[in-house]
Amino acid sequence: xxxxxxxxxxxxxxxxxxxxxxxxxxxxxxxxxxxxxxxxxxxxxxxxxxxxxxxxxxxxxxxxxxxxxxxxxxxxxxxxxxxxxxxxxxxxxxxxxxxxxxxxxxxxxxxxxxxxxxxxxxxxxxxxxxxxxxxxxxxxxxxxxxxxxxxxxxxxxxxxxxxxxxxxxxxxxxxxxxxxxxxxxxxxxxxxxxxxxxxxxxxxxxxxxxxxxxxxxxxxxxxxxxxxxxxxxxxxxxxxxxxxxxxxxxxxxxxxxxxxxxxxxxxxxxxxxxxxxxxxxxxxxxxxxxxxxxxxxxxxxxxxxxxxxxxxxxxxxxxxxxxxxxxxxxxxxxxxxxxxxxxxxxxxxxxxxxxxxxxxxxxxxxxxxxxxxxxxxxxxxxxxxxxxxxxxxxxxxxxxxxxxxxxxxxxxxxxxxxxxxxxxxxxxxxxxxxxxxxxxxxxxxxxxxx
Length: 450
Description:
This is Phage portal protein. There is one protein chain. This protein has 13 helices and 12 strands. Strands 4-5-6-7-8 form a 5-stranded antiparallel sheet, with helices on one face. It has helices at about 5-35, 60-65, 85-95, 95-110, 220-240, 265-270, 290-310, 325-330, 335-365, 385-395, 400-410, 415-430, 435-445, and strands at about 70-75, 110-120, 130, 135-140, 145-155, 165-170, 175-180, 180-190, 200, 245-250, 280-285, 375. It is an alpha+beta fold. About 45% of the residues lie in helices and about 15% in strands. It folds into 3 domains: about 1-240 and about 290-380, no CATH class; about 245-285, no CATH class; about 385-450, no CATH class. Strand 6 and strand 7 (about 175-180) form a beta hairpin. Helix 5 runs antiparallel to helix 7 (about 290-310).
């Protein structure tokens, strides 16, 4: 079946949007990977020093500090209190812990991230869920209904180099190739879902806008500043940081070996001992420059970065001689923890929508209201002893049940099942066979005749 005019126009429109964002996306990707090039290194730095540039990748520190603390505890259907086993199986089948990490990383880097859901030909019970590259993915959203009308993934075949695309529409998914400047359909899957099988998350979206803002943008100017400072420090160290020896009353021709051959300039530079024959010859040492000002500049940038990103100062190398106590660590991380909790609340919605869509692929039924709830582990970093002490106290006062205590400790459902089996085995071992026989006989003798 050939593409309709409407489908071709949708592809072209989505392609234009991808091309328009490409340069900014590429810049943010280079910052994220630590491959950015600073435009201006400073007036005192010669151009050849650019290859000595030291890139300080605080961007990675910012992103991983959030994504590493983002761990899903359970996935719950609407109206239920217990995690849903089927959803958890789908989660594990698609390695969603890894996919979620990439999804969140993309959100911080590009300001948007995508999940796609598709049929698994090998096992229909476990739909394929994967995080899509935002540089390849683009979507069209209806502003009035706040629903996605279409999405497309544009990519290049790694073997043939041919440009390809996948067009996602509410009722059909179409695979196309770019041939002779035109889109040519190769395959079509009429799934009749009624919705586009793509979920988009926009980072720090403002009301009335369907554009996300990269989370790393707040730190990019400071990364440029500290990178420039470290590169300048290298140049300062080479130019004035090493003690210089000066000689007066001698000429270059005076530096010869025992045979009268001139000593190479580099070798003469590093000689620790000079034999000066001329009476007016003198040698001395120039005091090296103090590079402490560069350290001060780096620390200043680190404090500003800590203030803007809500990360503890030691994440940027600002430490004290004495190690911090547990309370101090939790105090410095309080803003980071709250930031991760807010980020989890934002990401929880698209993750829930994705799992509801996966359930639709597997069962053919929609979740009521598309309201799949995602519960998260505590993003704080308390010690095991501290957490256990709080849980034991709560259980001893009757505030928590045994199962509730396990939840507070962050145990997975698999770990809970294992612990239940351990308890059952302990109860079985503690029963005396003679007591068990008497109990059974009494139960039979005094049983209700009815």
